[in-house]
Amino acid sequence: xxxxxGKALLDYxxxxxxxxxxxxxxxxxxxxxxxxxxxxxxxxxxxLEQKALQLAKGSVLDVGCGAGSHSLHLQKKGFNVKAxxxxxxxxxxxxxxxxxxxxxxNILDEIETFxxxxxxxxGTGIFQELSKVxxxxxxxxSLLKPNGQILIDSSDIKYMYEDEDGGFWVDTNANYYGExxxxxxxxxxxxxxxxxxxxxFDTLKLACETVGLKCELVMEGEHFxxxxxxxxx
Length: 233
Fold this sequence. Notes:
Layout: H1 4-13, E1 21-25, E2 28-33, H2 47-55, E3 60-63, H3 69-76, E4 81-85, H4 88-96, E5 102-104, E6 114-119, H5 133-142, E7 144-155, E8 179-186, E9 189-190, E10 194-197, H6 201-210, E11 213-220, E12 225-232
Parallel strand pairs: 3-4, 3-6, 4-5, 6-7
Antiparallel strand pairs: 1-2, 1-8, 7-12, 8-9, 8-10, 11-12
């Protein structure tokens, strides 16, 4: 990985903001990801994210923390937060923004235990593909303290396969429709493509049940998105 995401965050943090990140997938056109959005305050966050932060309790692990906006909000509320991301640049920015405990780390390498684990901004994305979901959920479950919780959001992107007549054109012989190839570019540089997973709620709930987690629907957003709370069954 070239860490173009981290490079973009560092540019914004250091006052060198001139353009946004460009993203696309194998089923969608190019779209801009505005850098200021990644530095947003609580009041500018979607209601799903606000709800997740309201539900946080005890010690918190912020997975895929990015620029650290969620961690900073919780820190200000007095929470003990650990922020992790695989992006070196993102963690550098989180530290520059005064996130007290930020580390470059893949969630599968985490060994501490927490009362709340946050996976926001399509938290299921890091699972990459449906076949890996159980592996990630099992590991996340092992990081929970007694009475701990996982707060995770995602979207059912089935609507992206809808035709003009309201029918769905999903190839039943292909992989799960939420498995996407994700492309990112910044300042004319292209990142190595990666796998990114969107999970519909029913599929997430079923996967949770197979690893001994109870999956509760907390809230639905305005565009096929949702927030779920996972607790040991």
